[in-house]
Amino acid sequence: MSAISPPALIIEFPESLPVSGKRDEITAAIAAHQVVIVCGETGSGKTTQLPKIALAMGRGKLNYPGGRGPLIGHTQPRRIAASSVAKRIAEELKTTLGDVVGYKVRFQDRLSRDASVKLMTDGILLAETQTDPLLKNYDTIIIDEAHERSLNIDFLLGYLRQILPRRPDLKIIVTSATIDAQRFADHFASLQPTLEGRKLTPAPVIMVSGRMFPVEQRYR
């Protein structure tokens, strides 16, 4: 399956990745909620495909008139992950690293002025809150591997919850291992209309299985 997002950027979602099969469900959840928890195992494709889903939804700088809109921010716990994920997504989009997708880590900045997706460490995003307290430079923020629960990640999750009421346009996607999914959903609970009136409701959780690999048994 594929989607075309201006200017003529072809976004493809590999059928072999489990998250591709959940694309419609994830898209609907992001459209309907300010915060979505995506729970997936290693190999599910969530790290590389979620920014592309956001792009296909019309989020990110290139989808705004004149390419002057906000970014899709995507945090990783480690510098090597931020750079390698950026390279992989740029490769899948058939674009040069930095043009549409780039990264910024300590001592390295591979991000053009017109880029739409910014990979970075959680420490970089945390530092940006000092000069951009409402994070208006972003319309979407993906906190990847949140279950690692570093001090930076925990602080970011608390900070994001505080600014959400002042940024109704901001979408937050948190990815986590299965064990912590409900904890993050409860952390971002919000008042939602129900038949019984407004009720505090956890953020939606979307489960994505890991990729299955063939296993060969050998006997000696």
Describe, in plain words, how this protein is organized in 3D.
- With 220 residues, the chain is of the alpha/beta class.
- It has one domain: P-loop containing nucleotide triphosphate hydrolases (Rossmann fold, 3-Layer(aba) Sandwich), CATH 3.40.50.
- Helices cover 30% and strands 27% of the residues.
- It is built from seven helices and twelve strands.
- Strands 6-5-7-4-8-9-3-12 form an eight-stranded mixed beta sheet, sandwiched between helices. It has a two-stranded antiparallel ribbon with strand order 1-2. A two-stranded antiparallel sheet has the order 10-11.
- The mean pLDDT is 90.
List the helices and strands and how they pair.
Blueprint: E1 2-5, E2 9-12, H1 18-21, H2 23-32, E3 35-40, H3 46-56, E4 71-76, H4 79-92, E5 101-105, E6 108-110, E7 117-121, H5 122-128, E8 138-143, H6 151-163, E9 171-176, H7 181-187, E10 190-194, E11 197-201, E12 205-208
Helix pairs in contact: 3-4, 5-6
Given this structure, which CATH class is correct?
Alpha Beta
Task: Just name the CATH architecture.
Answer: 3-Layer(aba) Sandwich
Give, in order, the helices and strands: EEHHEHEHEEEHEHEHEEE
Helix count, per DSSP? 7
